Amino acid sequence: MAGRLCLLALLLSLVTAAPPDMSCHCFPGDEWCWPTVQEWNAFNESVGGKLIATVPIGSVCHPDSIYTPYNAEACANLLSVWNDTATHYESSSSPMASWFANFSCDPRLPHTPCTMGPLVQYAVNASTVDDVQKTLKMAWDHDIRVVVRNTGHDYLGRSTGAGALAVWTHHMKDIQILDYEARWYNGSAIKVGAGVQIMEAMDAVHKEGLVPVVSNGQTLGYAGGFSQSGGSGQLASTYGLAADNVLEWELVTASGTYVMASPSTYSDLYWALSGGGGGTYGVVLSMTSKLHVENHTVSANLTFTTDNVSKNTFWDVASTFIKSSVSLTDMGGVAVWQVTDDMFMVVPATLPSGTEEQLQKVMRPTLDLLNSYNMSYTYNIVTYPSFYDSYRAMTPWSTVTDAQLGGRLIPRTVVDQTLTSFVDALRTITNHKSLVSGVSLNVSRIRIGVNDNINSVNPAWRKAQVNIAVGTPYKYTNFARDVAKANQVLMTRILLPLLQDLTPGGGAYSSEADLNEADWQRSFYGDNYNRLQSIKNRYDPYHMFYTLKGVGSTVWTERVDGRLCCVEDC
Ligand SMILES: Cc1cc2nc3c(=O)[nH]c(=O)nc-3n(C[C@H](O)[C@H](O)[C@H](O)COP(=O)(O)OP(=O)(O)OC[C@H]3O[C@@H](n4cnc5c(N)ncnc54)[C@H](O)[C@@H]3O)c2cc1C
Ligand SMILES: *[C@@H]1O[C@H](CO)[C@@H](O)[C@H](O)[C@H]1NC(C)=O
Ligand SMILES: *[C@@H]1O[C@H](CO)[C@@H](O)[C@H](O)[C@H]1NC(C)=O
Ligand SMILES: *[C@@H]1O[C@H](CO)[C@@H](O)[C@H](O)[C@H]1NC(C)=O
Ligand SMILES: *[C@@H]1O[C@H](CO)[C@@H](O)[C@H](O)[C@H]1NC(C)=O
Ligand SMILES: *[C@@H]1O[C@H](CO)[C@@H](O)[C@H](O)[C@H]1NC(C)=O
Ligand SMILES: *[C@@H]1O[C@H](CO)[C@@H](O)[C@H](O)[C@H]1NC(C)=O
Ligand SMILES: *[C@@H]1O[C@H](CO)[C@@H](O)[C@H](O)[C@H]1NC(C)=O
Ligand SMILES: *[C@@H]1O[C@H](CO)[C@@H](O)[C@H](O)[C@H]1NC(C)=O
Ligand SMILES: *[C@@H]1O[C@H](CO)[C@@H](O)[C@H](O)[C@H]1NC(C)=O
Ligand SMILES: *[C@@H]1O[C@H](CO)[C@@H](O)[C@H](O)[C@H]1NC(C)=O
Hints:
Strand order of the largest sheet: 15-12-14-13-17-18-16
Strand content: 15-25%
Mean pLDDT: 94
Number of domains: 3
CATH class of the largest domain: Alpha Beta
CATH topology of the largest domain: Vanillyl-alcohol Oxidase, Chain A, domain 3
Number of helices: 18
Number of strands: 20
Shape: globular
Structural class: alpha+beta
Distance between the termini: 7 Å
Helix content: 25-40%
Low-confidence stretches: 1-17
Largest sheet: 7 strands, antiparallel
Bound molecules: flavin-adenine dinucleotide, 2-acetamido-2-deoxy-beta-D-glucopyranose
């Protein structure tokens, strides 16, 4: 699409100092292509005044800010809620992963410059198809980078971008409960607008005795990156991943075409959107997904530490729990756990429709071992009347964390056959002061549709017993040094290879992955990559949608200043 402005730009370049680089998107400050104030105003009017010019939310903490005046009280308030996801998802621009804010206007660092950095330049607070179509047209006409922003949770910064015009979907909050009828599914379903968040969907259907397939993070966008990239949670072993439950997508493609995608219409787009990554194939307006009938749910949580015991003893118990989880996942349960170098926490182990006796049997070997080692621990097991009640009581509220992420899907065969090497790898990782979070599940036992290839979920999920996410914490006070030099190098070169070596040819969950993942096409998409790329090319031939390590993203490179430039045939 860069070529469209070629002639005009060539003419203008004769009279401006800096010749335009035609392979790049137009960037703020590029006089020959960036829209004038009048053009932005006209565009704003055309979308009913929904255009928002970004004001970095941290600017109230910066004495030299050009955006908003410094305000000590507002700054103190902001700092006290900086770790709340709401601080970011209520904003049209702030990414939760601070690496992708690049120090620009960090409220915790008032003496660094307050700049726009990688934040989107403008966002349209979209509520209609028309808003989305007009926004894409504005970006196309002026060759501006497009970003689809929902809640800003993405660990790979895929909902932000320097110099971009964002479609901000957060306020698309419609919810409808449907009796869905199709050749492949008859039953209850929920149709959610693109901005509906996990807890909102749960709350809306709970009174009907129904439950959606949700994440552990309570504030993620249900129809956004979560369901579009896979989507794991405590119902995964019973009903599959979030993507496995999608019945329809309503979207606007790059050309501005409004489309309903399902297994029978635009089935290629339906396939790609259900697991093949967010922000890549179009702007989703709504998602329709299966709902399930509520039932009693039993959950347990457990915490023990290294206090008064050797590391060998501690890891012996941890290993026993990881092994026992296999029987839980085979019954339809999920275990969410975390381990550091001195603490192991199960938060929680959940068995929907199960009994206390069944779950107790899973926990027994671990509890017996804790008792035989005389270790103290806290343990609770409770039967709740519904999954909803279990989720509310047993899932710790998620917050924004200052940690660099990486991950790996660990196949069942590794847990069954080489558990010792796996646990040794986790032990080495935690020795580096990193946090390991595991979700033990089985998403291969349920038939998800008319055939096995109904969606583009990374095939590595179907073999997985555990999804491991590793977090290397850093201090924002020494951001550049800690993150780029120490943290990322540690993650990519030392920690993840320990897990990759155990899982050759395996994969990682793109939503909980290392931003520097080398073999990402294979790791994130497996054998689906080529088909995903051809669908992407069919509906977005001019590569309007770019996300870091997204399908087809190799045509672009992001320069140091954030400018997106074409490196292949664009
Ligand atoms: C605290 C926390 C907890 C988490 N817990 C879980 C968990 O339990 N299970 C799990 O599977 N994952 C979890 N994740 C990862 C999560 O799934 C991803 O961060 C996901 O990308 C969030 O999607 P979003 O739409 O809310 O966020 P955004 O960051 O706004 O968007 C993510 C991606 O989706 C695209 N996108 C969003 N909306 C649309 C749309 N309408 N149309 C097209 N593209 C769109 C964006 O362009 C971007 O590429 C967690 C992350 C965090 C930070
Ligand atoms: C768009 O118009 C609305 C309503 O007139 C106004 O409040 C808003 O500031 C405008 N946005 C920009 C970027 O000018
Ligand atoms: C990120 O920060 C570096 C160092 O300050 C700067 O050179 C670069 O231009 C910034 N990039 C973006 C996209 O903000
Ligand atoms: C965005 O639009 C919604 C209505 O769809 C409105 O309630 C909300 O206040 C708007 N937010 C901003 C920041 O403009
Ligand atoms: C759903 O019901 C229709 C008839 O209303 C039927 O043709 C179809 O086979 C049913 N689908 C399933 C999966 O049961
Ligand atoms: C464990 O579960 C109990 C009972 O629901 C709850 O009170 C406690 O806070 C939970 N502990 C952790 C660490 O999640
Ligand atoms: C509820 O759980 C019982 C077993 O405890 C099971 O027989 C029944 O099928 C479950 N119902 C639903 C709707 O899952
Ligand atoms: C645990 O405590 C009991 C009684 O105090 C003692 O007999 C036993 O040796 C202890 N076991 C271990 C492994 O320390
Ligand atoms: C460790 O031992 C000390 C001293 O005996 C005791 O006070 C403490 O409670 C023990 N901690 C645990 C977790 O068992
Ligand atoms: C936010 O989290 C960081 C660690 O990630 C912690 O150091 C800080 O105290 C937290 N801030 C608040 C206000 O909770
Ligand atoms: C999932 O569970 C089924 C039994 O229900 C089992 O046959 C299968 O091997 C399991 N798959 C994985 C990947 O754990």
